[in-house]
Amino acid sequence: MNKTSKTFCMHPFTGLATREDGAIQVCCRSHPVGFIQDNSVEEIWNGDTMKRIRKSVLTNIRPPECEPCFKLEDQGVESLRQRHIAGAIPEARITLYPTALDALQDDYTMPFEIPSIELKLNNLCNLKCRMCHPMDSTSWNDWNVVEKYYKKTDNILFHLVEEHNLKRKPYLDKFEDNPNWWASFEKLLPYFRRVEFAGGEPLMDPQHYKILDMLKPYGDNIELKYATNGTTLGISKGRTVHDYWPHFKSIAVNVSLDGINDVYNYIRGNGDWQEVVRNIKEIQTIKNVRRVVGACTVQISNILVLDKIIEHFLDDLEIIFHSHRVTYPEVLSAQVLPLKLKALAIQRLQEISYRVKDFRMVKKHPEILKYTLGQIQDNINFLQHDQNHLWQDCVEFNQNLDATRNQSFTEVTPEFKQYI
């Protein structure tokens, strides 16, 4: 295994990801390598693009499809690629599949025996989070008031919403009736060791339960991982986490929590903080749930209370703190903060880093101390890059959404008032 390559990544050798519009990706972060409307997963797995990517990551070349990871790394922020080759996280693919490259052929093909897959099959969702969009949620009914900010930066999401007519027909699913997809997926069933679900909201999606029914005969060998908003634990007629999860080897749950209390309710439109807390506590009682993570999307409306979020996750909820950062729309990035507020955010993160060791979750699991401190440092590094020229656009973006949602940008973050 050529770990000496500066661009080495495990993903092109161990799995694929799907996107609601039919795109097949190297991972959930990458640009598409094909579309299910055009080819089967099997054809894409060993197509020219995937072979080129495998060769590139082994020979110090940055594949253009992998630009999102390298962009983060250039800002001093740990990328998905780096996490999976470091071996420090439980799902690190270099640990899970240490012999994966043994099957690599001279022409850079791999057997169609994929151990991991990340599934986003449609955009069915009950929330309309401020940093989200119609591609990921059917509940976005006020896209028209903010779409110009995506268009202004020529963001791909603007074009995808237009292409799929999501303002008028919000539901997007290219997989449910596609024979290319189901034929390939059925071939892979015996080889899966890890299946990850995202959305939309997978736990309210009937298609998710159809897949679990297919996976159940192999469940003793499969870990399930979820990116869920935590607002539901299932749907009617025996399709709940209690009905399915006990049939699988283990479960890892990332609950998307971008704040606590009022900040959570502000960012996660239609969300109810207390309801989500109740569901987290219920998930924690399920025996084969190995870990629960609070996944925080760091952005303009939570960066100044990120220290409080970290403390609440680790000390009160006793869940792991994980973060990633809004990079689109740019106007919601924490990098647009006015400089004095950015300095305040950094100061608060530095101060909380000294206290992490004393939180209950860390005392029970000392091994997460280093990880948490790394997460804090990633956000400090991210804030070092300046986009405060977008501050006025940020204010307008949020005020436009506030007007349709009966919310207030400055009430949730009082520090903003003097900069409006």
Task: Write up what this structure looks like.
By secondary structure, this protein is α/β, with parallel strands linked by helices. It is 38% helix and 13% strand. It is built from 19 helices and 13 strands. Helix 14 (306-317) packs parallel to helix 15. The radius of gyration is 21 Å and the shape is globular. The termini are far apart. The model has no long low-confidence stretch (mean pLDDT 95).
Strand element count:
13
Strand order of the largest sheet: 3-2-1-4-6-7-10-12-13
Count of helical stretches? 19
Judging from the principal axes of the Cα atoms, what is the shape?
Answer: globular
Q: What level of helicity do the residues show? A: 25-40%
What is the element layout, followed by pairings?
Blueprint: H1 11-14, E1 15-18, E2 23-25, E3 32-35, H2 41-45, H3 48-57, H4 67-74, H5 80-86, H6 93-96, E4 116-119, E5 128-129, H7 147-152, H8 156-163, H9 179-188, E6 194-197, H10 206-215, E7 223-228, E8 234-235, E9 239-240, H11 241-244, E10 250-256, H12 261-267, E11 268-269, H13 273-283, E12 289-298, H14 306-317, E13 320-325, H15 339-353, H16 360-364, H17 368-383, H18 391-405, H19 409-412
Parallel strand pairs: 1-4, 4-6, 6-7, 7-10, 10-12, 12-13
Antiparallel strand pairs: 1-2, 2-3, 5-11, 8-9
Helix pairs in contact: 14-15, 15-17
